Amino acid sequence: MKILFQKIHNWIRVKIQTNDITASLILVLLCLFLYLPGISSLPATDRDESRYMQATKQMVATGNVVDIRFQDKPRYKKPVGIYWLQATASRMAKQIGIASTERSPYRLPSTIGATSAVLFLYLGFRKIVGNLQSFCAAVLLACSLLIVVEAHLAKTDAMQLAAIVAMQAGLAQIYCMPKVHELLRARIFFWLGLGVALLIKGPVAPVLASLTLAWICWKDRSISTLVKIQPWPWLLVPLILISPWLFSIQTLSDGQFVQDSIQQDFFSKIVSGQESHGAPPGTYLLITPFLLWPASWLLLPKAWAGLRRSSEALSRTTQFLCGWLVPAWIIFELVPTKLPHYVLPLIPPLCLLAGIGIIQPDRLRDGPLLRLSKWPQRIGMFAWIASGLALAIGVPLLSIWASGSVTVAALLIALTCIFSVLTLGKIKTPKRQLYASALSAVVVFGLIFEAFLPNLNNVWPAEQIKSIIDSNNFGALPVAAASYHEPSLVFNLGTDTTLTDLDGIMQHAAKHPSAILIIESKEVDKTREQLSLISNIFILGRYSGYNYSKGKPINLSVLKSDWIKTDKSK
């Protein structure tokens, strides 16, 4: 194994230093191994992903590329960029015969976004921190659990990350290596990345760019960097990208879009813990080792080492990376609403610092500084081991809860995690540790997303309900659901699915000669009794599982109602 890692490292080092195309292809191949497994087999998740996919499906069906709707309700939370990308992928998939309920076309933009973020990190920073350093940073980013998850979900975050990395790469080139002949290209990257990020997720990118600029201007006691990015006329680039659609949607919604997206969505998250996602300051710091597993055993201690190392010789690089990371992280910790993917745009600077630490290790003499420097490594290793063991124990337990036994996939995941914990820590050189982490990530995440999660039937109610209906060949009948109203149900069963209560179920059955009714199992007898004069009720199937969006078990029955034929109708 030692000889194999050495040969791999020597080959990669030569190729990276001599051929950017080969290095880029290696990164793309790594991303494909990490992000493609499960992109089709993983059921639609609740709630955000299913809302995005359903709104895109309606956009494709209606041909309205301006208004964003979930069923008949406007969805004015995020700009239209991700919907356009998903709609394009869906239309292309439809041309080759892929159904509109197939998940992979909607997820493809996220997969491309995550891969692009990895490539932009390498190509955009290789002249700033070094080829090998930026390559290691890109590998660390690619292998982190957080970006692997986002690459599998049809949401905004992976594509936004790609735009932000491109934006920050342009700003870093302007600040760290301000050569006149390269300023034009750097400005294009910065302003175009800002515009695309605005069109994808709104104000996050401008806030991050402003914080970074404020940090480096404060450190330099100068606004020279602000002058070099030339806000005028380059500010026109993002304005040209966003303005036509923004004007159209503001006109169409009578000004409601900006009010809903900025006031109700963005500022409400800043003021209070929205949608029960509140958490105290320090939460992100505590969960980061798990979010970045398996790369966290290298990323956190080597980022600390890289910070010290780069501060000696690359002070402007250090200032820039700290400006990208520190002020935004503090704000995210202070904001009451906390979700893991909020800190995704702050992982790249950590990866870059770690890349510096991997390639340029510390050479500290024995003393207080050396002893102090070992603490981040010890803390990082402890957190990494705890995260690995949590996966090794949690996955089999989840398998037992869902299926009554430990599946083969769960067993393989647990064994791989245990093997990683027991053996990878014995690898001494950081470069070999990096390759071992990448290999562990490919195996573990491939099994999780392709074989383990899709088979957890207890947590995919909508998928199982659709299976019950389709197995009886009643997919064309109108559907009404009481109690269970998750967006994945609408995506799986169709836009016309009625989300209602028990009274609405009665009205639905009375309105349609034949219909599908989805209700809680405890309400079956009551429903049958109330509809006994007008409909015959047949039980097509039952589902018992867990609604993870609400954190409670559910027991549902899928019924078919048929009008009773009267003598007059005969």
From TrEMBL:
It is found in: Cell membrane. Residues 78-246 form the Glycosyltransferase RgtA/B/C/D-like domain. Its main location: membrane. One of its GO terms (molecular function) is pentosyltransferase activity. Keywords: Cell membrane, Glycosyltransferase, Membrane, Transferase, Transmembrane, Transmembrane helix. One of its GO terms (cellular component) is plasma membrane. It is a multi-pass membrane protein. InterPro entries: LipidA_mod_glycosyltrf_83, RgtA/B/C-like. PANTHER family: MANNOSYLTRANSFERASE YKCB-RELATED (PTHR33908), UNDECAPRENYL PHOSPHATE-ALPHA-4-AMINO-4-DEOXY-L-ARABINOSE ARABINOSYL TRANSFERASE (PTHR33908:SF3). This is Glycosyltransferase RgtA/B/C/D-like domain-containing protein. The lineage of its organism: Bacteria, Bacillati, Cyanobacteriota, Cyanophyceae, Synechococcales.
